[in-house]
Amino acid sequence: MSSQKVQNIMQQMTIEEKIGQLIQLSADFFQDGQAVITGPMKSSNLTLDTVYTVGSVLGISGAKKVRQIQHDYLKNSRLKVPLLFMADVVHGYQTIFPIPLALGASFNPETMKIASQVAAQESAAGGVHVTFAPMVDLVRDPRWGRVMESTGEDPYLNSVMADASVRGFQGTDLDGQHVAACVKHFAAYGAPEAGREYNTVDISEWRFKEQYLPAYQAAVDAQALLVMTSFNTLFGVPATANQHLMRDILRNELKFDGVLISDWDAIAELINHSVAGDLETAADLALKAGVDIDMMAFAYSKYLKKAASLDQTTADLIDESVTRILELKDKLGLFDDPYRGITEEREQSEIKTSANLTAAQTAAEESIVLLKNQRQTLPLAADTQAALIGPVAETGDLLGSWSWQGKASETESIQSALGAEMPNLKVATGVAYRSLNQKELAAAVTVARQQDVIIVALGLPSSESGEATSLTNIKLPDEQLMLLRKLAQLNKPIISLIISGRPMDLSEVDALSDAVVFAWFPGSRGAKAISNILLGKVNPSGKLPMTFPRSVGQVPIYYNHYRTGRPITNTPEDDENKYQSKYTDQKNSPLYPFGFGLSYAEIKVKDVEIVADQITTDGKLQVNVTLVNQSSRQGKTVIEAYVHQHVSETVRPVKSLVDFDKVTITANSSQKFRISIPCERFAAVHTNLEKYVDAGQYTLMVGLDSENVVAVPFVIK
Ligand code: BGC
Question: Model-level pTM greater than 0.85?
Fold first, then answer.
């Protein structure tokens, strides 16, 4: 039915109207509810008439504004094909959830699903139709600022989270409470050389398929309706012009049949990448690669008409793209109601509700990671005489990058949340992120001296994570380390609380602190979540979705690395053998491994038992895991199951996550959990780039982090 509707529109469209659908404009082209062309937009060469043919706009929301613009657009457009509103609704719209990397740390797909659902519901009420999320790029380099947008370094965790996010955004039927998801950035944007933003990516197709592709695959399998191209080069060709990547892999192998949109200006950047001599060629390359929408490069608007008149293949490609875009509009119900049911009243009542804020708080509580807790420094009793010091104490800057509609100025600070619960809390104010004068330092020390415990709230501002924030130094700023050193000299228990969008080198922080809590950017209700964790109202259960290095020199460091010909053995022999894969000035091991995170409860793996140690390739590995909690607190943890294949055609990671389960275990108890792992999760990509499961010997490793595991052999027949 829908196709007939779309075909009817297609038949009436002029070539200009068709090309219009392939153009995406920024918000500046619409002001006071109307289309405009002002000075800065002149270089686009668009006329106002063309603006009334464009298919989509990005970065506009608000029920009133969207209604006005849609109304003006429909009034002025000949065929009245509704305008599509897209935006970056990444970890919340107005209710901001923890950043995606933190949602990864929840190891709880339900948390991710709820975060995406709430983001969809609020942004849909605000007139958004498509969100540029989830970002599912696998990331292993904390120098790259965009690690905060991903769920981390593991293909399986990322796949589970990608699936949950798409389902949360789109719901089962993409009704008016949901938005279409645009998976990004295809592909492998998370592996820029040296962690430098927009830099070259060069990995083999084998590695790409093993580790990077699965999360995109999961998002496409979850029926994500759009995909965005990445800025980077892959296999020698920029993604936006890469026919092998987009046609062979995305369309044919992954069976993606939705809309492919370029990233911002990425078609024009093909010239800088030097695969196109001019914008006309760039437009041609992108269209041939199957890019349906040109986001802000004006390549399609300038050159496709001429190209289509000269060449039937181009005209056919344009038709294909227009069809896909119109089908998307139809799926969103825009032909039936171009406003998708938005009203200012609905917006008022559905955005930032207390239920949504509570969900954001729960997500933050699920994602905060306790990295160290010596002598049970934490949790704190509410009447503790504590000092709170540091740049993060007084700020509402807890939302993190990509929280476009979030308001830091309205976000509760840690000082306020903790102060409400701790009558004896004293705060030393005025400490900045990257400066520290003697007066502030002396004042901080004075406050700390009067108190029994020192909470040092350290970290980075939102502006130092996200796009275009690559760093070569991933320690805390010198001034903050100076403050911490000074406070440590007082010989009182120190709790370091870190706000950051990326793994950091916390070696010195760890050495100087009795307890370390890593809170990421925890979102709108982050301060309350932090307070609940510090006071033990909530028992921490987050686990690291990325490895934390001992120093930046270990980067990229990730748990699921391949074996080498000369591995270290972790025995005293390593000291005598120079010719091993290692550093001479640093250990190979990280400061905190992937999957690591403590609880206030003392939970351990007591027993791992494989039900049948021989399985077939279509079977499941059934495992009984017994956990003990030797404390008087109930706690949550994550059972993590890893696998290693002993011998195979291609090298295998030392271990790969194949399953995880976030579980609750009651105080002073021993509890048995059953995990069931489908054999297909043990598949490897072979030299012919085919992925399948080999018969042979494997080891299953089960633990509460990736390093401390109980190993059990099994065989696949
Ligand atoms: C980013 C995308 C984003 C787009 C639109 C680009 O700079 O790379 O992730 O969706 O801008 O805001």
Answer: yes
Taking the C-alpha atoms of residue 5 and residue 10, their distance in angstroms, rounded to an integer, is: 9
Output DSSP code: residue 476.
P
CA angle 137, 224, 152 (to 5 degrees): 20
The Cα 367–Cα 567 span in angstroms is 33
Which of 131, 229, 264 gets mutated to test ligand 1 (max ligand atoms within 8 A of its CB)?
A: 264
Measured in angstroms, how far is the CA atom of residue 469 from the centroid of ligand 1?
14
The Cα 680–Cα 616 span in angstroms is: 10
Let me know: does 487 contact 367? Beta carbons within 8 Å: no
Task: Tell me: cis bond preceding 134? Omega within 30 of 0 counts.
Answer: yes
Residues with C-beta less than 6 Å from any ligand 1 atom: 58, 88, 132, 184, 263-264, 467
Closest protein CA for atom 6 of ligand 1 = 264
Nearest-CA residue for ligand 1 atom 10 is 132
Going from the Cα of 282 to the center of ligand 1, the distance in angstroms, rounded, reads: 19
Residue 103 · residue 118 · CB < 8 Å = no
289 membership: H or E segment, kind and range: helix 279-289
Instruction: List C-alpha distances in Å: 215 to 161, 186, 208.
Output: 8, 11, 11
- Taking each helix axis from N to C end, the angle separating 438-450 and 478-488, rounded to the nearest 10 degrees, works out to 40
Q: Is 290 left (phi over 0), alpha (psi -120 to 50) or beta?
A: left
| Alpha-carbon gap, residue 511 to 16, rounded angstroms | 65
Tokens (6 digits) for 218: 């999961």
Q: What does the alpha-carbon distance between residue 398 and residue 526 come to, in Å, rounded to a whole number?
A: 7
Q: For residue 89, report the distance from its CA to the centre of ligand 1, in Å.
A: 11
Going along 319-469, which residue ranges are E strands?
369-373, 386-389, 426-428, 453-459
Examine the pLDDT at 1 and tell me if it is beyond 50. no
Cα distance between residue 168 and residue 160, in whole Å: 12
- Which residues face 388 on adjacent strands? 427, 455
Length of the chain: 717
Nearest alpha-carbon partner for 76 in 43, 45, 50, 104: 50
Token readout for 67 is 């209604």
CB 252 within 8 A of CB 217: no
Active site residues: 263
pLDDT, tens only, 48-88: 999 999 999 999 999 999 999 999 999 999 999 999 999 99
234 C-beta neighbours (distance < 10 Å), count:
24
7-21 b/e (C-beta count within 10 Å ≥ 16 → b): eebbeebeeebbbbb
**Angle of helix 299-310 relative to helix 279-289, nearest 10 degrees?**
80
How many other C-beta atoms are found inside a 10 Å radius of the C-beta of residue 191?
A: 25
Q: At what angle do helices 213-221 and 155-170 cross, to 10 degrees?
A: 30
Pocket test for ligand 1, best of 263, 404, 469 (most atoms within 8 A of CB): 263
Comparing CA positions, the residue from 565, 23, 634 lying closest to residue 297 is 23
Q: pLDDT tens digits for 317-343? A: 999 999 999 999 999 999 999 999 999
What average pLDDT does range 692-716 have in this prediction?
98
Summarised one tens digit per residue, pLDDT across range 106-150 is: 999 999 999 999 999 999 999 999 999 999 999 999 999 999 999
